[in-house]
Amino acid sequence: MKTRALLTAAVLCIAGPAFAQGKAPAAKEKTAAKKEEKAAEKTAAAAAGATAKAELKDQKGQPVGEVTLTETPHGVLIKGTLSNIPEGEHAIHIHEAGKCEAPFQTAGGHLNPNKKKHGVLAAEGKHEGDLPNLHVGADGKVQFDAFAHDLKLKDVQDQDGAAVVVHAGVDDYKSDPAGNAGDRIACGVVQVQK
Prior knowledge:
Mean pLDDT: 78
Catalytic activity: 2 superoxide + 2 H(+) = H2O2 + O2
Signal peptide: 1-20
Shape: globular
InterPro entries: SOD-like_Cu/Zn_dom_sf, SOD_Cu/Zn_/chaperone, SOD_Cu/Zn_BS, SOD_Cu_Zn_dom
CATH architecture of the largest domain: Sandwich
Family: Belongs to the Cu-Zn superoxide dismutase family.
Order of helices and strands: HEEEEEEEEE
EC number: 1.15.1.1
Radius of gyration: 27 Å
């Protein structure tokens, strides 16, 4: 009996670490597999192209166009087609509140969940809602694509929503809080598409 007990103890001493090593990688593999699964789900959701749209109107309530926001694995692709906008260069931003009552101050400030300074030229910038200026032709029409690297559609889906706003002037890309862009001339509430 003593011999048998000693043999069992010896086997366990030798084999025990091997069994433990076998279990540890399995646990690590499970954790890695879960992380990969979550990343795949995130990529699949982005690849599925979750979208949101904003129908913009001017201060008189007349339609001026549409902006579409599409989730991607790297941020949000923003595409727009606008008309009846004054000729020239205009700032366009995503604002923090989904309310568009003329003169559109109800849309609040720029979407800025990370509390940064305004503008791509600011060392402490940029707001997630900061976008490149629009260049509108003499016919009052503009079609544009922009990409917001730090933006996610969930950022525009909080309790008070978000809005796309076109300004009367140009964004200087540095003045805080709004790029010295002037009055708000068009606004559209962002609506997530289902």
